[in-house]
Amino acid sequence: MIIAIDGPAGSGKSTVAKTVAEKLNFRYIDTGSMYRSVAWKSLQKNTAFRDEDAVADIASKVKIELIPGKDGQLVFVDGKNITDQLKVEEISRGAAIVAAQPMIRDIMTTQQRKLGQQGKVVIDGRDIGTVVFPQADKKFFLDADPKERGRRRFIELKGKGQSGSTDLPTIIKQIIQRDHEDRSRKIAPLKQAKDAILIDTTHLSVDQVVEKIIQIITPSS
Questions:
Q1: Could you report the per-residue pLDDT of 118-129, keeping only the tens digit for each?
Q2: By residue range, what is the domain housing residue 21?
């Protein structure tokens, strides 16, 4: 079984997907961390995010490992644990840029399909149900009010000591800008698959969203 969970930044899809995977004893695949990994590696090599040829070369050669950890998924790039480095704003911006480039998108999609074809996976991102696995067994699209998504991201960054001088209104603006970029890009834009179940998470806890999804996947449980 392949369970696809899509949605914009701050909708809770990563936390929800990870928890659903744990409850079902499935593997969790965070595709966003794969694009962030490419952005991180590009930064390490002083490669401009918009240099598609150079970044594609990096994406085709970099070794990205997604390993379950006690507190969530660990991300290793060429053997180095970079999990805590992937949520900084510079990497977020870089990931949005590289993810909009066709060559990088093709490389990552191929890698994601290889991971998903192993079966029993919960995979989240922005184009899983529409592009990567349009034939996924179950599809969900999580969304929430931009102000609430910005609040969540601010709390997340503050908890990791990464909020710095960035205030909540600025983060909300960044969320809205990222939404625009994701929904308007020419290749694999963010959108709800026609057969995906929409869940508005604005006023729901993670546990409530997870419970909804589990009940849909295993109605007899």
A1: 889 999 999 999
A2: 2-202
